[in-house]
Amino acid sequence: MKVAVIEPLGIPQETALAIAKEKLGDRAEIVYYDSVTKDPAEQIARGKDADVVIDTNIPLSDEAIRGFEKCKLLDIAFTGVDHVAMDTCKELGIMVNNCAGYSTACVSDLVFGMLISLMRNIAACDTATRNGGTLAGLIGNELEGKRFGVIGTGAIGTRVAKIADAFGCEVVAYSRTVKDIPYIKYMDLDEVMKTSDIISLHMPNNAETKGMISAEKIALMKKNAILVNLARGPVLDSQALADALNEERIAGACIDVFEMEPPIPGDHPLLNSKNTLVTPHVAFASKEAMIKRAHIVFENVAAFMDGKPQNVMN
Questions:
Q1: CATH architecture of 104-278
Q2: Which amino acids are annotated catalytic?
Q3: Which residue intervals of the chain are DSSP H helices?
């Protein structure tokens, strides 16, 4: 069986190949490309004769997938698969796997890293200290006692809720699936939006969730509330959020994801809104997560070869 890794996995190539060897032994021929391409023709050239094609978060169009003439498994080294032409995969009978779980810890870490940075004015404090300043005007807020709203309680949302509880927050949530977790109180979406001091988004981007956090939902938020989006850019209305921030109808935002992948255009509304902390879609990317991801990628291939596929998305 031929396995084509058509873009790098975020770790040294020799490390990735060693993990592949550990998981697959001599059962597969691995071809590894250590450069990124968004060109469908080049993607096809890399994967056209492979039984298994491995991609990360670079979009795979209908054209590219149709060019993978021998592909039986498309192994996506990412949690979401909204960048993949899934209808084409279904039509052609190509199984699609994802890498659920690899980024749960690092995404959750960044939620609180960004929140504490924003709430405690850490960047401004650093600047003030280096310029001979004092704490004047830099008194922030703490997490304890805040109502922390989680929208989407999958693996990441549940971990975020657990950490929020450890900080002494009251945790409330809205999710398609309600879980029996003692420290989470479930309620409807509007109630979470209306009553939370912090709202953290953790839902996928799909037909049901696209635009879910609309201007109308943002208008429900408290004036002291902070919105955190480390999920997917299209789940919220960026312009409506920027308007609410600039008009001081809400207190702040922490944003890692946008409607497009970085680099983000300089005129994007959330790059020009008040009290907004932004990062370049880095939540999923820690050194540890990249290693975890490579293990899951090749475990997916091994499970497929054994007739026991895992992490199937279609």
A1: 3-Layer(aba) Sandwich (3.40)
A2: 232, 261, 281
A3: 13-24, 40-47, 62-67, 86-92, 104-119, 122-130, 155-166, 189-195, 215-218, 238-246, 287-305
Average pLDDT value for residue range 124-153: 98
pTM summary value:
0.93
Comparing CA positions, the residue from 110, 60, 108, 104 lying closest to residue 81 is 60
Beta carbons of 67 and 40 less than 8 angstroms apart: yes
Quick check: 212 and 236 in contact, CB under 8 A? yes
Eight-state DSSP code of residue 208: T
- Say if 2-102+286-305 and 104-278 have the same CATH topology: yes
CATH homologous superfamily of 2-102+286-305: NAD(P)-binding Rossmann-like Domain (3.40.50.720)
Enumerate the domain spans of the chain: 2-102+286-305, 104-278
Q: In this predicted model, what pLDDT tens digit does every residue of 60-115 receive, in sequence order?
A: 999 999 999 999 999 999 999 999 999 999 999 999 999 999 999 999 999 999 99
Distance CA 250, CA 185 (A): 23
* Under 8 Å between Cβ of 235 and 206: no
Helix pair angle (287-305, 13-24), 10° resolution: 30
